[in-house]
Amino acid sequence: MRALALVCTLNASPTPSSSHLLADQVMAALAEGGAQTETVRVADHDVRPGVAVDMGEGDAWPALRAKVMAADILLIATPIWLGHPSSICQRVLERLDAELSETDDQGRMLTYGKVAAVAVVGNEDGAHKVSADVFQALDDVGFSLAPGAVTYWVGEAQQGTDYQDLDATPDAVAATTRTLAANALHLARLLRDHPYPPS
Length: 199
Known about the structure:
Layout: E1 2-7, H1 18-32, E2 36-41, H2 61-70, E3 73-81, E4 84-85, H3 87-96, E5 115-122, H4 127-140, E6 144-154, H5 171-193
Parallel strand pairs: 1-2, 1-3, 3-5, 5-6
Antiparallel strand pairs: 3-4
Helix pairs in contact: 1-5
């Protein structure tokens, strides 16, 4: 099993990121379950706007897309901004829209058989709304979602504590992350052995 995290913080490396921290925790749980993992911070790459597989010279998406296509599990990690996924997360979803036109010789999207999950952080409410938005987009472009396909943390309203500022991972977040990893791996293995039927 291969798992890829696309971290959609607005900040490029090496700026600390709560989204990156939670993604790393998910990747660690997946690794414990036997997956080979990789984490990519999208802000470190020049992903052009658009809804095509390749937007031309200088576009970094084709190389990232190759990583997505090589993975069995895709994690999208995003902060909450103004009640929505980050603009970088939205760009990733828009680029994944191109997969609607990419099919195998049996008419299935190339993303069929791949499992997706979501990690959300913020210091205001909105994790359910953000995960719902990302879930729907991932489903639209062919990914499958296991039960418990999101882990998240949000702090109290109108305060400035970030997830990365906590002294320890809350037990509920750690438990949810473990469930996400276990269920994603289980579904990915099932889909590897029992592919979807031709479309």
